Amino acid sequence: MRIEKISENKIRIFVSFDDLEERDIDLSSFNYNSPETQELFWDLMEQAELELGFETNESQLCIEAVTDVDQGFIITITKIDDDSDFESIQKFIKNRYKKNDIKFKKKTGGAGSTVMIYNVESFEDLCNLCARLKPVYSGESSAYLCEGSYYLVLKRMDDNEYRIESILSEYGDRVLNVTFLEGYLNEYGKLMVGNDAVGCLGDLA
C-alpha cells in the first residue's frame, strides 16, 4: 500500500490486489463495504496520520475509489471542514460521507453513458494530464474553467478504457453527476478549448 499527500485536505491511497488478498478481501466485499474493508480503511487512515500528518478529527470525508488495471484500487480521500463547501457545486458532483457512515463507490459510468468529466485542480495538471492522454486517447474532448477548477470532458470510448481511466485518476477526480455538470458548465463555466482539448493542451505541457 502506498499513500500520497495531494494537499492539506486530500490524500490518494494505492491498494494492490495483493494487499486485498493478504486481508482476505475480494472485489465484491471491497465494493460493498464489508467489515474487512472497514478495518482496512481505518488502518490506512491511521497510517496516513502517522506518515503524513493527515488528521481527520471530526471532519466529513469525501471518498472515491476507482479500479486500476495495474495497481488494484486508487482511493481518493478529501476532508471537508467548511460548512460552506456543501453549498458549492461540489455537493452535486461528489459523494459526501461522515466517518461513521463510509461507503465505497466504484467509479463507473451509468448504463449508456457516453461522457466522462474529470475535475483537475490546476492548469498545469490539466496540461500534463492531456499530454499523458494524447498517445492513447483519440476521441472528442473539451476543457472548461469553472469556480477556480478545471474540467476535462471526454467522449467515452471502449479502446484503452482502463488505461485512460488510470491516467485520469492520477490527476483528478471523476464527476459522478455528468448530466447536471454538463449543463452547469455550459451555463456558468468558461469554455477554454471546445475541440481536441487533449491535443491542444497536451502540446503545452
Short description:
Pfam families: MecA (PF05389). This is Negative regulator of genetic competence. The chain starts with a strand and ends with a helix.
The end-to-end distance, rounded to whole angstroms, is: 30 Å
**Which band does the percent of strand residues land in?**
25-35%
SSE succession = EEHHHEEHEHEEHEHEH
Helices and strands: which structural class? alpha+beta
> What shape does the CA trace take?
globular
User: How many strand segments?
Assistant: 9
The largest β sheet comes out as: 5 strands, antiparallel
InterPro entries: MecA_C_sf (IPR038471), Neg-reg_MecA (IPR008681)
Family: Belongs to the MecA family.
Organism: Thermoclostridium stercorarium (strain ATCC 35414 / DSM 8532 / NCIMB 11754)
Protein name: Negative regulator of genetic competence
What report would you give on this structure?
The protein is α+β, with helices and mostly antiparallel strands. It has 2 domains: 92 residues, no CATH class; 88 residues, Alpha-Beta Plaits (2-Layer Sandwich), CATH 3.30.70. Helix content is 35%, strand content 27%. The protein contains 8 helices and 9 strands. The strands form 2 sheets. Strands 8-5-7-6-9 form a 5-stranded antiparallel sheet. It has a 4-stranded antiparallel sheet with strand order 1-2-4-3, with helices on both faces. Helix 5 runs antiparallel to helix 6. It is globular, with a radius of gyration of 17 Å. The two termini are 30 Å apart. About 15% of the residues have low confidence.
